[in-house]
Amino acid sequence: MRVSDFWRLMDDEFGEAYSRTLARELVVDRLGDRSAAEALAAGADPKTVWQAICAAQDVPRERWLGRDITPRT
């Protein structure tokens, strides 16, 4: 997963404004007691960060993959 995919998933799940606040403010134990923004800045895998956010926020597992996107042709 790319960092851009992480932000797309965050925006889709939490809304653009709240996703940025959540990424900065929510400290997640699965990320070494860091926020998502801190973990990403330290080089953490975006997929791992996304899954940690989902678990911490009780996002249903069926939404962990995000919405379906039509491929560009």
Automatic annotation (TrEMBL):
InterPro entries: DUF3046 (IPR021408)
Highest rank taxon of the organism: Bacteria
Name of the protein described by the UniProt record: DUF3046 domain-containing protein
Protein species of origin: Arthrobacter echini
